[in-house]
Amino acid sequence: MSLWDCETRTKQVSESGKAGLAEIGALVVTLEKSLLEYIGRRREQPLDAFYQRPTSDVMPAYLVELGQTFMLTLLANERMSKSALWGERAMLDWPLTMSLHWPSAAVPKLMYISGLAKARDYQSEVLAEYRERSLELLREARQANSPVVQLTPLVWTLFDMHDEFQAHVRNLPSDTNPAYKTWLDRVGE
Question: Could you write out the DSSP letters of every residue in the chain?
C-alpha cells in the first residue's frame, strides 16, 4: 500500500507485507493503520458519518469488489473492450451480496449502484435484469433511513424511469440545496 500526496503527485510512504488468503484482511487493516499513523491524522470517525471501515473479516470481499469496480470503470471509460469482460453479472452482484452479509453498511450498496451506473455507461445488455432488485434496495434504504436513498434519482435514470425522476425534480422544496440541484441536472442529462 502506498500513500500519495495528490497535490504534488508524489509518493509519501509505502507499506507492504505478506499474508495468505485467510490473513489478508488483517494485513490490510494493519497496513492502513501504519499509513494513517505516518500522516499523523488518525481518524476514529470517517469524514462521512455513514462510512464504516471494513473489518479484517470482510476486507477480502471488499478488496475483490474494489478490483471489480476498477474493471467496470475501465470498461465504462472505454479503456478495455466489452469482449474482454467475463463474469459481468457476478461483478454487478458482488456488492449486493456483500450488503446481505454486512447489512448495516452503506458502502456496498453505494458500490452496487455505482456498478450499475458504469453498466449503463458501457451499455450493458444485462442492466435491465437489475431493476427490481435495485428498487427493492431503495425501498429498504428508505425504511432504514440510509444515505443510499439519496441516489434514488440516479437509479431512476439508469432504468429509464423518467416520469419518477421528473416528478421528483418538480416537487423539490424551495430551500433545496443548490449542490443537490446541480447533481440532479447532471443525472438528468
Answer: -EEEETTTTEEEEE------GGGHHHHHHHHHHHHHHHHT---SS-SSTT--PPPTTTHHHHHHHHHHHHHHHHHHTTSS-GGG---HHHHHHHHHHHHHHSTT-SHHHHHHHHHHHHHHHTT-SSGGGGHHHHHHHHHHHHHTT-GGGGGHHHHHHHTT-HHHHHHHHHT--TT--HHHHHHHHHHH-
